[in-house]
Amino acid sequence: MTGRPAAGRPDFERIALLLQGGGALGSYQAGVYQALAEAGLHPDWVAGISIGAINSALIAGNPPAKRVEKLRAFWETVTQPPLGVPYLPSFQFANDLQRQMVNQWRAFGTLMWGAPSFFKPRLPPPIFAPTADPATLGFYDTAPLRSLLESLVDFDRINAREMRFGVGATNVRTGNFFYFDNARCAIGPHHVMASGSLPPGFPATEVDGEYYWDGGVVSNTPLQWVLDSRPRADTLAFQVDLWSARGELPRDMIEVDVRLKDIRYSSRTRASTDQFRRQQSMRRAVARLIEQMPAELRQSAEARLLAEEADSKVYNIIHLIYHARRYEGASKDYEFSRRTMEEHWQTGYDDMTRTLAHPEVLQRPTSPDGVFTFDLKRLDRAQEPKK
User: Fold this and answer.
1) Which among 203, 306, 370, 386 is least buried, having the fewest CB atoms inside 10 angstroms?
2) What average pLDDT does range 235-247 have in this prediction?
3) What three-state secondary structure class fits 135?
4) Mean pLDDT, to the nearest integer, of 311-336?
5) Which residues pair with 210 in a beta bridge?
6) For the residues of 293-346, what is the DSSP string, one character each?
7) Does residue 190 contact residue 206 with C-beta atoms inside 8 Å?
8) Are 146 and 202 in contact (CB under 8 A)?
9) How far apart are CA 29 and CA 240, in angstroms?
10) Contact (Cβ atoms closer than 8 angstroms) between residue 54 and residue 153
11) CA angle, 326 then 54 then 223, to 5°
12) Which residue has the higher pLDDT, 273 or 243?
């Protein structure tokens, strides 16, 4: 794979990489990052939920030259073949049905034996054994993940704040969404694990006396958090989603389950960006209005309140969404096979490379609201010949 070098850093104050949750689908994000890195587009801010939090930590916790290598090490580790069955990259499937059967068998193996160095079954299962410890109320033990993170992520680097880093989690007691942000607290492996503690498979993770579940229980994307952050800045944001809200009508009960999962965990990014555009139109109008006010009026309490919301910054929101093949099925988020991981990685790389081939992606927007959105898949559909 060869990259497409950028002519220079785009004219934005910050570049943000925002990674959604989605389990085994997360290698798509690793491919996206590889294409960004080869193009010289290194983020200033990386934020994620669940598997996106893990990928974010691997990026923020390593120097630029090592990030793809560490992402590759993580994904090759957790997709090692179970029970010593060799991975045969040259094997070709006869059809999608055969591939679907193999995928389902590999997903069944994950349910039975877990994923290497990621999680393992808790025996006996905590079904009929009430316990006072929330950290054991999960069908799998995620202790192996801590060791893997500690071996691949330099948390001192994250806490040195060379890059802003944040992961989202859900407070089990209050039900509130919370971001662990290296601008506000020291980050450790437990913060990343808290973001990915999806029940009932994984138990809650304790952080400072509180217990947290996966951030995707409440919100599966950090986009709004980054856009609403203060102080505001000209932003080039790459939002990488693993679930598609848009899809085809199901043809059988298996596809009903797949479609339900997609809708449930999708980020509604298009709706969020549409709302953000409207807000930005108002903020920019307020900024222009305040500039035209007499000095004495600008000192009024009402004008000062409006000035806090005024914003003349510009935003490019570049949206990439993984669209699963039909043969992947409802188990696509826990089918940790090496072959599928490589497919996801390559798809992410290709999607990002194609996206960067559009020069407007890296240019400051000129629209009145100061917001530019780009969706490669939506563009592809718009360019399809009309039937």
Assistant:
1) 386
2) 92
3) helix
4) 91
5) 207
6) S-HHHHTSHHHHHHHHH-----EEEEEEE----GGG-TTTTS---HHHHHHHHH
7) yes
8) no
9) 7
10) no
11) 75
12) 243
